Each structure stands twice: as structure tokens, then as C-alpha cells.
From TrEMBL:
This is Uncharacterized protein. Keywords: ANK repeat, Repeat. The lineage of its organism: Eukaryota, Metazoa, Ecdysozoa, Arthropoda, Hexapoda. SUPFAM superfamilies: Ankyrin repeat. PROSITE patterns: ANK_REP_REGION, ANK_REPEAT. SMART domains: ANK. ANK repeats lie at residues 47-79, 82-103, 116-148, 149-181, 182-214. It comes from Aedes albopictus (Asian tiger mosquito). InterPro entries: Ankyrin_rpt (IPR002110), Ankyrin_rpt-contain_sf (IPR036770).
Amino acid sequence: MLINERTDFNLQNKKRWTPLHVAIHYERNKIVPQLILPENLNLPDIEGRTPLHLAVDKKSVENVKVLLNFSSDVKLNAQDNKQQTPLHLAAQHGHSEIVRQLLAVSTTIIDALDKDHNTALHLALQHVNGETAHLLIERSSKLEATNRKSQTPLHLASQAGLDTAVHALIQKGVHVNPRDKMQRTPLHMAALRGHVDVVQVLIDNSAQVDVTDTNGRTPLGLAIEDDIVTMLQNYMQ
């Protein structure tokens, strides 16, 4: 990329990328600081992604730091066409260092919802990113937020088999028996996926074992592991 005094740093191509977007996407990190202006710092591309979105998506700790340090006007709450913030992307990728960078600037973005009403924590758990999930659990004030499937973080942690995240959420005081749109509880999810350790944590914390989903099935009816079947049968006796 050639830079001279006539370069228009705000010029956009068909993707509505500025030279800053291009440099970040192709990881031309040395010239990124030269391309940042107040006018293009938060400029969205055709997918609604700002330069910060792209830096997070490329998992570039260096470029995220450069953008955050350039100005306090960088929009951490900017949402792309999927209504996802840079924090949503960092959580989805499981990039804990970038999550820390973003939250060090502001924690007000932590419970923002995307188009599916997922918080960053929902996405971290969906993608089985345990370390990132724990960072968000410690800082979020809405640990029982539900997405469009009426799933709470506890549903997703149980589904993912992240027993330490399940324990952390319960320690924070979340309800153990929330229902999603199929009327399934976290125990249903854990039993269905065969996560023995999660089933044990939920049972130890008073999860209901005799609840039925919309198909009339209990966690025992969905269990696929013999150990879980035995565990649930013993608990019901």
C-alpha cells in the first residue's frame, strides 16, 4: 500500500473498506497507525464492521491496542449487520486477551445483545471458550439473560460440558432450572450431550430431575451415557 500526501484515507472500495480496513484485514500492522484518523476510526464497511471489528476478527492484539489507544472516541458498542459488537467477536473467537483489552476500557458493553439476543457470554459458551466465559461471568450483571431460544448462559454452559463455568454461574446465584423454548432445563442439555460432570454439578445444586420438555421427555429420557442414566435413576429413588 502506497501512502503519500495525496492519499485519501477515507476513500472506500466496493466493500466500503477504507485503507485502514484494508491494512487491518491484510495484517499490514506497521502502517495501521499512519492510517487512523478521527473520520475513519469508526467507519463501518458493507457488513457494518468498523476497523475495531476487523482487528478483533483477525485476532490482532496489536491492532486492537493501537485503535483503543488512538482515541477515547473509538466505539466499543458499534454493532455490525448481525448487531454484534467487537466484544461479541472476541468472545466467539475465545480470545481472552482481547476481551480483557476491551473490558479494561469499558464494561458497559458486556451485556449488549446481537440479533439473536446473545450476549458475549452466550457466544463464548456456544463456542466452548471456557477461559473467556469465566472472564465474562466475573464481570456480567445479567447472567440469566435469555437469547431468542430462551437459553440462559447456564443452558449453554451445560450443553458445552463446561462444568467449571456451570459451577461459577451457580455460585453467582443463577437459577438452576430455567426453561428454554423447548421447555428444557440445563440438566436436559447436559444429559442429552453426555456430560457426566455437569450433570453431577447440577444435581448437587438441586436441579429438578423429573421435569419434562415439550416432547414429554425428562433428563433421564434424553440421557445417552450409562453413568448419567444410573446417576439420575439413583437420585429419583
